[in-house]
Amino acid sequence: MTSCSTTPSPCVRPRGSGAAANPFSSSRGAPGVVPLVGHSAPELCDRLARLGGIAQVTGPHGAGKSTLLAHLSRELRARGESPRIVRASRSTWPLPTRCSVLVVDEADTLPSWKRAALRLACRLSGTGLLLCVHADAGLPTLVRMDAGLSTARGVVEHLCSGWAVRVPRDDELAGLLARHEGNLRSVLFTLYDWYEQGRLCVETGE
């Protein structure tokens, strides 16, 4: 294995090249692929039921909201529900309500009157509603996502598992989180570059 040096070189990697041979490729960090760190999907589904099936998930960009929605939808299906995830910015209006729970990602892109109309439509049809927003949309909050150091470490350790790669130190992860203002997605993009540059090679002592 090539050791790290002053002039970084690519780490030893599985056969292949590019994103397919990088532990931080976007496909490996896609929502529902990475684990849900710091939260329990079953517990949140129980809380959603206590809230009457209508709630919001809040948090800044890259905090793991889409990942949470994917895990919640999986848990709801395991319970016999029929959730449907739609991305508001890419969906036509009106949004579909023929499901047990409508999960709306990027709900901030909907004007307030559309969110109000959607809430009314869901209540009339008996459909649950879960909005994913950056700021308070006026619904009961199911959970606020905030990618801290422990969350970042859990996701990064998962992505590094099985790879001949050095897991970034806590001070490195904390620095990246600060640089990207808590956007874990951007942190993973940076780590993708670090891997390509050889900055995450495993030291061999040679």
Task: Please tag this protein with its features.
single chain; 206 residues; alpha/beta; five-stranded parallel beta sheet; 6 helices; 36% helix; 12% strand; elongated
Characterize this entry briefly:
With 206 residues, this protein is α/β, with parallel strands linked by helices. It is built from six helices and five strands.
Could you explain the architecture of this structure?
The chain has 206 residues and is α/β, with parallel strands linked by helices. It has 6 helices and 5 strands; from the N terminus they run αβαββαββααα. Helix 1 crosses helix 2. The longest helix has 14 residues. The radius of gyration is 20 Å and the shape is elongated. The relative contact order is 0.21.
Can you count the helices?
6
Number of strands: 5
Name the helix and strand elements from N-terminus to C-terminus, one letter apiece. HEHEEHEEHHH
Largest sheet features: 5 strands, parallel
